[in-house]
Amino acid sequence: MLCRKNQTTLTGQEKSRFVAAVLALKANGTYDQYVQDHMNFMQAAHRGPAFFPWHREFLRRFELALQAIDASVTLPYWDWTVANSPTSAIWDPSFMGGNGRPSDGQVTTGPFAFSTGNWPLNVESGPAFGFLRRRFGVSSSALPTASDVTAALAVTPYDVTPFDAGFSTAGFRNRAEGWFSGPQLHNLVHV
Ligand SMILES: [Cu+2]
């Protein structure tokens, strides 16, 4: 049975097959369509109750697209409470590549580096840079912790009125999405 694995448990071959499938979707335009879809639904899919179910369906569709390229591939997951350092293996050149360069944040190592020619950014929500950027530890000094996760998981109910980012202060969804005293959790991982 295919199951989703913690990225730390992937073999070298599993990592390279995952990367190859992602690059194949990028090359045939499918990946950019997912980026466009995510941008088109930015309002409805975030800052409200649909946040988790929308992304669960989105990721499943993306996983099925990967599997149409390579049936052995599943979406790995990143436990950022553990693999939380700039030197964690997830950033190796054989997998995600490393931090961006200081001048402009351009990722220059790994399969998604602009210099490979395989990862031009064709769909961007802000100013168009054209290349993947990362700036570890600049907008925030650390990733969320395991106790942040445990505390969020203890929150009930799922969401509370008015079901938004700014005023829903007591529900699980807004706590986990990270607007509550933010950026926290999901939002903090983004920055
Ligand atoms: Cu999203």
Structural commentary:
With 191 residues, the protein is mainly alpha-helical. Helix content is 37%, strand content 0%. The protein contains seven helices and no strands. Helix 1 packs across helix 4 (51-69). The chain is globular. The model has no long low-confidence stretch (mean pLDDT 96). The structure holds copper (II) ion. Copper (II) ion (CU) binds at residues 38, 45-46, 55.
What is this structure, in a nutshell?
This protein has 191 residues and is mainly α.
Q: What fraction of the residues are assigned to beta strands by DSSP?
A: under 5%
Termini separation: 35 Å
How many E-type strands?
0
Helical content band: 25-40%
* Structural class assignment: mainly alpha
Largest β-sheet summary: none
Which ranges are low-confidence, i.e. pLDDT below 50, for 5 or more consecutive residues? none
Radius of gyration: 17 Å
Rough outline: globular
Helix-strand blueprint:
Blueprint (H helix, E strand, L loop, with lengths): L11 H16 L2 H11 L1 H4 L5 H19 L76 H8 L18 H6 L7 H6 L1
The structure holds copper (II) ion (CU).
Copper (II) ion binds next to loops.
Features:
mainly alpha, 0% strand, globular, binds copper (II) ion, 191 residues
